[in-house]
Amino acid sequence: MTRILTVLAIIIAVTAATLLLAERQPPVASTVMPLTEAAPGIPATLVAGTALGAALERAKADQTVVLLNFTGSDWCHWCMVLKSEVLGTPEFSAWLATRGALVEVDFPRTTALDPATAQRNQRLSELFGIEGFPTIVMVDGDGRERARLGYQKGGAAAWTTAADGLLGLR
């Protein structure tokens, strides 16, 4: 019995350490998905009557993008850093005004989401194959992925330059 408890304690400790390390390491996710290989669009039933639905309609009309910010707003260290260094800055706001809209897809641990929002966020995460936070998926007005980007060192200027490069706007 003592051996079993010792093995379980080791498994729990290793799992906890792995999760903590995963949260502390900045994701280095930046890829471009050409439209010819793009994932299918977001199902209309998933966005009807939501801020995401309105943002997609606007992006389609204006030929801009929607940035889906997959985040753990109240627990993910790098999500908080991205928000303070990039998303919450006047430089980013000015950049976003000419590029599209930002929609938060949140997975908080201490703040409860209403069940419909939590389910919608989970389905979006599965649809785009989100494996870590923060991940910002840039989609066109049809909901097809154009690019994705995580935290980038260097603040708003570095992040927006990287995003423009991925979107072919340099």
Keywords for this structure?
single chain; about 170 residues; alpha+beta; Glutaredoxin; five-stranded mixed sheet
Distance between the termini: 63 Å
Helix run count? 7
Strand content is: 15-25%
- Kindly provide the name of the CATH class: Alpha Beta
Average of the residue pLDDT scores: 83
> Quick one: how many beta strands?
5
Q: Please provide the ordered H/E string of secondary-structure elements.
A: HEHHEHHEHEEH
Shape descriptor reads globular
**By CATH's scheme, which homologous superfamily applies?**
Glutaredoxin
Percent helix among the residues?
A: 40-55%
Q: How many discrete structural domains?
A: 1
Rg over CA atoms: 18 Å
Order of strands, widest sheet: 1-5-4-2-3
Class of secondary structure makeup: alpha+beta
Topology (elements, then pairings):
Elements: H1 2-24, E1 30-32, H2 44-47, H3 51-62, E2 65-71, H4 77-87, H5 90-99, E3 100-106, H6 115-127, E4 135-139, E5 145-149, H7 155-167
Parallel strand pairs: 2-3
Antiparallel strand pairs: 1-5, 2-4, 4-5
Helix pairs in contact: 4-7
Description:
- It is a single chain.
- The protein has seven helices and five strands.
- The protein has 170 residues and is an alpha+beta fold.
- It starts with a helix and ends with a helix.
- β4 and β5 form a beta hairpin.
Task: Write a brief structural summary.
With 170 residues, the protein is of the alpha+beta class.
